[in-house]
Design goal:
The protein is mostly helical. It has nine helices and three strands, in the order H-H-H-H-H-H-H-E-E-H-H-E.
């Protein structure tokens, strides 16, 4: 039979499992000593290279515990060669396909060196931080735009920004003694003069003025100024707004 290239019939799987090393390997599997079990089953194959049972156990251990999928495929193939008609053949083929898929996944991960993989992770973290910063800046911009849209709102004692005066034709000069837009006439001492309108005195609000500062300019109590302007909201005074002044006290 040796002359024809055929192997002599080997022991049955039941006989293979009686090998001392195979028994040791089985005991170590039950004790969860998987590395020791691999060593014992390897010795069993050294004693009997045609031990399909030992090849099957080594394939399972390498696949499930060592994650050595190449070694698992080798032992699965040896098992199929030795036991092509085994009732485990289809299961073994399916497990071989699973091992090949795992090897393919590992190959994709090995395309980039570890240094580049770390750099990719760092870039991902930086991108997440930039995304959070961008969202925060969007919120700040929206809040700033909302504040800018409150035209002529004058919080308590907050100076009002004056509007730009309308352009004057070239060569034109303002009338003598008339105030420029956004201002009131002043005396030689610098004190604003009240404007006489149809027998009543008025004051035009300028930038930065408050009821207290206006009353002080005209030498009147602020309470009288407020009485002369019922409904006046000091927090919403506008530049150019006309306020009534109480009648001047007679000497």
């Amino acid at each position: 039979m040796l002359g024809t290239g055929c192997w002599p019939p080997g022991p049955s799987p039941q006989d293979e499992q009686k090998d001392p090393y195979f028994i040791v390997g089985s005991n170590r599997v039950r004790g969860r000593d998987f590395k020791g079990a691999i060593e014992a089953f390897t010795h069993s194959i050294e004693n009997n290279p045609r031990s399909s049972a030992a090849h099957f156990e080594l394939a399972i251990l390498n696949e499930q515990h060592e994650k050595d999928f190449a070694a698992a495929i080798y032992h699965y193939q040896r098992f199929l060669t030795l036991q092509p008609n085994s009732d485990k053949a289809e299961i073994v083929k399916a497990r071989m396909d699973g091992c090949k898929q795992e090897i393919a996944k590992s190959s994709l991960m090995l395309i980039a060196p570890p240094s580049q993989l770390r750099e990719i992770e760092n870039l991902k973290e930086s991108l997440q931080k930039l995304t959070l910063e961008r969202d925060d800046l969007k919120k700040q911009l929206a809040a700033a735009q909302a504040r800018a849209g409150r035209d002529f709102v004058n919080p308590s004692n907050t100076p009002v920004v004056p509007p730009k005066p309308a352009p004057r034709p070239p060569g034109a000069t303002p009338p003598t003694g008339s105030p420029t837009p956004g201002t009131t006439a002043t005396s030689q001492t610098g004190t604003p003069k009240p404007t006489e309108t149809a027998g009543r005195r008025t004051h035009t609000v300028k930038s930065g003025e408050t009821p207290g500062s206006i009353a002080k300019q005209h030498g009147i109590p602020v309470t009288k100024l407020l009485d002369a302007n019922p409904g006046l909201d000091p927090k919403r005074m506008r530049i150019g707004q006309t306020l009534n002044l109480p009648p001047a006290s007679r000497p």
